[in-house]
């Protein structure tokens, strides 16, 4: 009897689809790459042909240069590589992020990439797809990781801002996805004041606008005078929170938007005064609920706490295996 999914093979550098001679999110240049989203632990330059959503191809062009072999695939569209059918459906992670539904030999495999189940005003919501094999991430694959409601975290940020009108709140947020989401979540909570951004965020914020995400009034923090920044929100890459750039700000309240802020030691290590638990990944309850909802015959687990999620699957009589892919760092936590 042929093993389930025998035509798809995980390697440390990516997932190989043998009958299509293509790789999913390869960490090395590949003649044929299927890319779930634009973060650097899943996308890179140097591929021959690249199948991805139009938004992901635009992000890759912005970050890695022109993608001459780009083949845009819209959500819900099915393309064929030989006798393999590929359909891209929303993953809810960042703009353009997709799960790749791969069908061959009457079997369906879903590669989720990174995903979240929370509503996000900057990207299409996750769509569960029943399948035989579900390849899931496990970034926050421990029961300790249960993310609070997004609105409550944004309200904490706004309250601290209003209580300190002579200071600014400096929020560390990754350039792709997290920064734009923080901005839009603030807008959704009624904060329409100008938001000031570090120059490293400008290109991707411009790209989001080009893709139809209305970010409101954004201004370069570097051009603003110290007095102008009092009582304002400034967003910068995490690496800028404690460097020379931040010293020109008016007594900043240092915040960090990340699912890792659940761990107090991480907040202390970064000298974060206001930890904001805001993640673009599924938490423990969402990971397990998604598996139950999709009801796969097998679960293959990629980066993160693979062992804990594999143990949960065993307790629920679901066959599971760890893939041990390399190079999966949480740029977008």
UniProtKB/TrEMBL annotation:
Organism name: Sphingosinicella rhizophila
Gene3D superfamilies per the UniProt record, alphabetical: Ribonuclease Z/Hydroxyacylglutathione hydrolase-like
SUPFAM superfamilies per UniProt: Metallo-hydrolase/oxidoreductase
Enzyme class, UniProt record, top EC level: hydrolase
Superkingdom of origin: Bacteria
One annotated GO molecular function: ligase activity
Keywords associated with the record: Exonuclease, Hydrolase, Ligase, Nuclease
Protein name according to UniProt: Ligase-associated DNA damage response exonuclease
NCBIfam families linked to this entry: Xnuc_lig_assoc
EC number: 3.1.-.-
Matching InterPro entries: MBL, RibonucZ/Hydroxyglut_hydro, Xnuc_lig_assoc
